[in-house]
Amino acid sequence: MNKDEYEVLLAILDEGSLTAAARSLDRTLQSVSRAIAALERELNATLFHRTTRRVEPTAACLKFAARIRPALGEIDAARDELVDQVTQLRGSIRVGAPTAFGAEFVSPILAKFLAIHESVRAELVLAEQHLDLAKAGIDLAVRLGRLPDSTLRAKQVGTLRRVVFGAPDYFAARGYPVHPSDLAAHDCVLRQHAEGEAWTFNRAGGAVEVTGRFRSTSALACNAAAVAGAGVGRAPIFQVQKLLDAGQIVTVLDSFEPEPVPVHLVWMAGRPVPRRVRTLIDFLAARLVAGTGGDAV
């Protein structure tokens, strides 16, 4: 059995052409053509009808592929299982994450990962701003928000709700906004250096320019100021869920709730990803958004 040639056959069927199959397998078109020719000689059967524009699988080819596909899947699963049994993950992983999110959610997941893989060491680097993965030596990072165009590889693992909130005493004194435009009459807690900023809502709410007398680059500081009555705040739900449960804040404008914040895992492209990092990517993807008040993708 030549597993390599069988995989070429399935790739041609899945991708629809020899060229697309070569691209998906990261092989040359010539090597894909040679593999199919060798397989046809081995089986003494015609697998594809070839024209100048396309290849069409024969009935015998489709029947043969249906039989070997699950068998190849079992071979791959058996190989991975054996590797996991005899090869222990080992080495160091350096993970980056936003300060508040990383401390509350990434840290305990990393601890569970280390409990399973006893020969792995992990370092969690927390920062308010996105770190340059190459310069900081980061193997894997958690990013909140829309990703700019970059050469990083990314995997979206979920979304986080964003809410607008404030202290009950603040709203008792200043009134409750019923539409995002009402925020013009309120002090808003700002997360930028500028005097004002634009808050976006869903389509019914649009974008609103807000101003306020308290601003900070720290999410924790902004949330604490809103709790203390400095104005209306806006944050991902995970940052303020405990405050909401305790009655220290209330949410407003729920029917205009802003678009959710995407949660991504990112890592460097163009270089091999160690198995310990690939395993952690899957581990984080399965657990990261659960418990944050967000939605898994």
UniProtKB/TrEMBL annotation:
Gene3D superfamilies: 3.40.190.290, Winged helix-like DNA-binding domain superfamily/Winged helix DNA-binding domain. Residues 1-58 form the HTH lysR-type domain. The keyword Metal-binding does not apply. Keywords: DNA-binding, Transcription, Transcription regulation. Pfam families: HTH_1, LysR_substrate. Belongs to the LysR transcriptional regulatory family. This is HTH-type transcriptional regulator DmlR. It comes from Paraburkholderia haematera.
